[in-house]
Design a protein that fits this description.
Number of domains: 2
CATH architecture of the largest domain: 3-Layer(aba) Sandwich
Radius of gyration: 19 Å
Low-confidence stretches: none
Structural class: alpha+beta
InterPro entries: Beta-lactam-related (IPR001466), Beta-lactam/transpept-like (IPR012338), Diverse_Enzym_Activities (IPR050789)
Largest sheet: 5 strands, antiparallel
CATH class of the largest domain: Alpha Beta
Distance between the termini: 15 Å
Order of helices and strands: HEEEHHHHHHEEHEEHEEEEEEH
CATH superfamily of the largest domain: DD-peptidase/beta-lactamase superfamily
CATH topology of the largest domain: Beta-lactamase
Strand content: 15-25%
Domain Beta-lactamase-related: 45-315
């Protein structure tokens, strides 16, 4: 597996501010600019790109914003928040507070066939629970019903109450409900309800990384909506990606336990609808970028970590589903404008 590059000795950690500069001499500036132009320019029905930036070797070397958006504008993560939830579990594992191979502590699972579901099954999206992840058809979508319908007040209870269709670990099924079950498990371990989880996220993750804009949202039951709702600037989402690029270490301090990020990018499934993407532990894998991992979100939200190029690329926008494959091609063009580590 591709190793994670170390922090360049001449670059400060971006806990306070990102350093911004021109790409290194071995980067083709014209190719980077062409890629940014392609991302920026949209045809009818292609939506809009609101923020795109690239962090190469520790500094921002490419950055552009769309209408009514700048470096201080907070934008929604959508499902990129899932990987933030995954980071919380890394910290809990590092603290010795959870064994992810033990049955998940979920009241709705007790004394049912669901009792065999482990946290690892949940992280891999292999719970076996029924859940239709659809963002359009509210007559069939469990996701829409959870966020805006019958489950609006308690997302985790809604998701955990779904029937078991497959043996745990048998079938991969991407499900926002799975993440909200995890978020409630984490909240129960941390304690203190919404205030406790807010404090944990701020003190253990956002503050060390300098993610001063980060604002998580909670449901009425006090559970972090880890499936969908974290607001932050593009630069702060890049900080989160940079933590993973540096193997869970930030400014000589290990925030995620050794091996956690490697396990995140260990492929457990391939998206049958988009076979260029694999899936690890609540992280996507860009299969044409060896060793990569990524957080993905609805409307074209991407934080892509490419260790082989010492690179983090962030894109935030409002891009419809039909236009997203073309966007991915354009983002791949930006990624490929940066050289691999020799």
């Amino acid at each position: 597996m591709i190793a994670f590059p170390e922090q360049p000795t001449n670059e400060p950690w971006p806990s306070a501010e990102w350093r911004v500069g021109e790409p290194a001499a071995d980067v083709d500036r014209a190719e980077v600019d062409d890629a940014l132009r392609g991302i920026r320019e949209k045809g009818d029905g292609d939506g809009v790109s609101l923020a795109t930036l690239a962090v190469h070797r520790g500094r921002i070397v490419a950055e552009q914003y769309g209408p009514d958006t700048d470096a201080d504008t907070t934008l929604v993560s959508w499902s990129m928040a899932k990987t933030v939830t995954q980071a919380v579990f890394g910290m809990l594992v590092g603290d010795g507070l959870i064994d992810i191979d033990q049955p998940a502590a979920v009241p709705e699972f007790a004394d049912t066939p669901k009792a065999g579901i482990t946290v690892r099954h949940l992280l891999a999206m292999k719970s076996g629970l029924e859940f239709i992840e659809d963002y359009v058809d509210d007559t069939t979508s469990h996701c829409l019903d959870m966020l805006f319908g019958a489950g609006i007040h308690d997302h985790a209870h809604y998701a955990a109450s779904q029937q078991l269709l497959h043996a745990p670990g048998e079938l991969w099924n991407y499900a926002s409900g799975t993440t909200n079950i995890l978020a409630r498990i984490a909240g129960d371990i941390i304690g203190g309800g919404e205030a406790g989880m807010r404090a944990f996220l701020e003190q253990r993750l956002f503050a060390p990384l300098g993610m001063r804009s980060a604002q998580p949202k909670f449901d009425d039951a006090g559970t972090f909506v880890g499936s969908s709702y974290l607001f932050a600037t593009a630069r702060d989402f890049a900080r989160f990606g940079y933590l993973y690029l540096r193997d869970g270490v930030w400014d000589q301090r290990r925030l995620l336990p050794s091996g956690w990020v490697d396990s995140s990018r260990t492929e457990v499934a391939i998206d049958p609808d988009h076979t260029n993407f694999g899936y690890g532990a609540h992280c996507w894998i860009w299969r044409d970028q060896p060793g990569s991992l990524a957080a993905h979100g609805y409307e074209g939200q991407y934080t892509v970590v490419v260790p082989e190029r010492d690179l983090v690329v962030v894109h935030l926008g409002k891009v419809p589903a039909a236009a997203r494959p073309a966007l991915v091609v354009k983002l791949s063009g930006l990624i490929n404008a940066f050289p691999t580590i020799g």
